[in-house]
């Protein structure tokens, strides 16, 4: 069977550990050269977020919502390898079109930057190129938005060729409209060398020529990445088609980032997938084989985590990965029960699922981390979402029930038949057990008498022996 290749066995346990170790050893490499040689590879990829101040604008919702949003931004910043020094939120009716936070507040923000010695400000939102530029000019440090931060984490975590290409595509798409701002900022940070005095007006002329070149180069690169991703997608579709031909049911694990999807996959299949208390630890989908109590095979796939306002560049670039979920027979939607607002996470996940047409796949909602969840939150969940399952990937509580619930929801093989399989066709009996539902077997004179439900392909092979 050609799809076996993508199932990895026990030695993944060590790979997972190794990956974790490697990732930690890679983080926080300070003081790398900032010599800029290639806009696409260097300028953008190494954001070098080190010591940061976070800033948000609270326009609607409760205080708790505003706090959660900043806590999430801090977690994102830390995942990207930076040290969070301070977080400021401004209550305001709307975002300031020029400076994101109110113009008057920029000075206060600047004080915070100076007092803490921060080198970067991260804004909780997606800023326009001019907002970023205006803030940078007034604060004199690098200003980054939430989208760029998420893109940076993705860039650090992408492992596979496809994942890397997808991230780079997303980054470049984000970069194109901001090219001008970035160029100015970086040249200013590098001491203004090369690009005229103080940026601004001085950048016209030669600056713009370089900009045109950069833009052209980036667009060429974008086109190339699109082609590559398309080609890789064909390979993936072929694999998926072969899985569909073999009629092995597929279960996709989806959910908010850090909900415990990889932990659950490990718990359910004994696979050693990378687990980390970091956001977007998993970018490359992994598929593992599992076996139901009745011996039937199915697959479980781990996928990239979702987040509120997942940047649209990411959704676009990762569309082919996310669409895997749409091709599944069941979506295991994992929710972090220990999060202060699981409902909002569920909403954010369903939004992305709908965006990639995966909302038509039956969903099994699973609340994880019940070992550390607040009992009151759990009660509320039980009331609001009937039929939800409660588990802990850590303690193993509820896992057997979950396994049974998954197996119950697997599509049943299409064809019911009785056949006498000759004893020299042990291979066929074996496949009947793996792919079909065995209702009864009996050893008869001419062979094994089986009463089964099997997928169409297998039914055709059994045809000669049907009674
Ligand atoms: N207390 C507790 N912690 C858990 C449980 N399941 C997972 N975790 C922790 O939650 C963190 C995230 O787990 P992962 O399995 O990496 O989560 P994920 O959903 O795959 O995350 P991403 O791949 O980053 O989207 C890790 O620190 C886990 O140890 C659980 O049942 N209880
Ligand atoms: Mg994961």
Automatic annotation (TrEMBL):
Question: Quick one: where is this thing mainly located?
Answer: cytoplasm
Localization recorded for this chain is: Cytoplasm
CDD domains given in the database record? HflX (cd01878)
**Stored PROSITE patterns:** G_HFLX (PS51705)
Which superkingdom does the taxonomy of this entry point to? Bacteria
Cofactors required = Mg(2+)
GO molecular function ontology, one term from the record? GTPase activity
Q: Which UniProt keywords apply?
A: Cytoplasm, GTP-binding, Magnesium, Metal-binding, Nucleotide-binding
Annotated Hflx-type G domain ranges read: 249-414
UniProt xrefs under InterPro entries: G_HFLX_dom, GTP-bd, GTP-bd_M, GTPase_HflX, GTPase_HflX_N, GTPase_HflX_N_sf, P-loop_NTPase
Entry's Pfam families? GTP-bdg_M (PF16360), GTP-bdg_N (PF13167), MMR_HSR1 (PF01926)
Q: Where does Mg(2+) bind?
A: 262, 282
Please list the residues that bind GTP. Answer: 255-262, 280-284, 302-305, 368-371, 392-394
Q: Which SUPFAM superfamilies match?
A: P-loop containing nucleoside triphosphate hydrolases
Q: Which GO terms describe its cellular component?
A: cytoplasm
Subunit relationships: Monomer. Associates with the 50S ribosomal subunit.
PANTHER family from the xrefs?
Answer: GTP-BINDING PROTEIN 6-RELATED (PTHR10229:SF0), GTP-BINDING PROTEIN HFLX (PTHR10229)
Q: Describe the family membership recorded for this protein in Swiss-Prot or TrEMBL.
A: Belongs to the TRAFAC class OBG-HflX-like GTPase superfamily. HflX GTPase family.
State the function annotated in the UniProt record: GTPase that associates with the 50S ribosomal subunit and may have a role during protein synthesis or ribosome biogenesis.
Q: What is the name of the protein in this document?
A: GTPase HflX
Q: Please name the gene that encodes this protein.
A: hflX
């Amino acid at each position: 069977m050609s799809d076996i290749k993508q199932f990895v066995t026990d030695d993944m346990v060590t790979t997972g550990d190794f990956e974790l170790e490697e990732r930690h050893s890679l983080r926080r490499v300070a003081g790398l050269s900032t010599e800029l040689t290639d806009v696409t590879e260097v300028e953008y990829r190494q954001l070098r977020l080190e010591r940061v101040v976070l800033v948000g604008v609270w326009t609607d919702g409760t205080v708790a919502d505003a706090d959660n949003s900043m806590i999430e931004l801090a977690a994102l910043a830390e995942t990207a390898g930076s040290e969070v020094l301070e977080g400021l939120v401004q209550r305001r009716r709307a975002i300031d079109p020029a400076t994101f936070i109110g113009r008057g507040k920029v000075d206060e923000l600047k004080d915070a930057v100076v007092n803490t010695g921060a080198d970067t400000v991260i804004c909780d939102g997606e800023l326009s190129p001019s907002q970023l530029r205006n803030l940078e000019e007034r604060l004199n440090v690098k200003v980054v938005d939430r989208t760029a931060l998420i893109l940076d984490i993705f860039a650090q975590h992408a492992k596979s060729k496809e994942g890397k290409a997808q991230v780079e595509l997303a980054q470049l798409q984000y970069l194109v409209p901001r090219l001008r701002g970035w160029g100015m900022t970086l040249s200013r940070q590098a001491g203004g060398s090369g690009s005229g005095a103080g940026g601004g007006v001085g950048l016209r002329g030669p600056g713009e020529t370089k900009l045109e070149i950069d833009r052209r180069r980036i667009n060429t690169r974008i086109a190339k990445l699109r082609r590559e991703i398309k080609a890789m997608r064909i390979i993936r579709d072929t694999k998926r088609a072969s899985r569909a031909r073999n009629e092995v049911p597929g279960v996709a694990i989806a959910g908010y980032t850090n909900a415990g999807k990889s932990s659950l996959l490990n718990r359910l299949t004994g696979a050693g997938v990378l687990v980390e208390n970091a956001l977007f630890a998993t970018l490359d989908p992994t598929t593992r084989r599992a076996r139901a109590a009745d011996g039937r095979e199915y697959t479980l796939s781990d996928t990239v985590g979702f987040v509120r306002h997942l940047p649209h560049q990411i959704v676009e670039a990762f569309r082919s990965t996310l669409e895997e979920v749409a091709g599944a027979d069941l979506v295991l939607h994992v929710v972090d029960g220990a999060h202060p607002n699981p409902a909002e996470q569920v909403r954010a996940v369903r939004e992305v699922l709908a965006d990639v047409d995966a909302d038509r796949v039956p969903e099994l909602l699973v609340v994880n981390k019940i070992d550390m969840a607040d009992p009151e939150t759990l009660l509320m969940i039980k009331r609001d979402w009937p039929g939800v399952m409660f588990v802990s990937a850590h303690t193993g509580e509820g896992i057997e029930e979950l396994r049974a619930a998954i197996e119950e929801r697997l599509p049943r093989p299409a064809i019911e038949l009785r056949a006498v399989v000759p004893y020299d066709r042990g291979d066929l009996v074996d496949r009947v057990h793996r792919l079909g539902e065995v209702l009864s077997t009996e050893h008869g004179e001419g062979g094994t008498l089986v009463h089964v439900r099997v997928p169409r392909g297998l039914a055709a092979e059994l045809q000669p022996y049907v009674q």
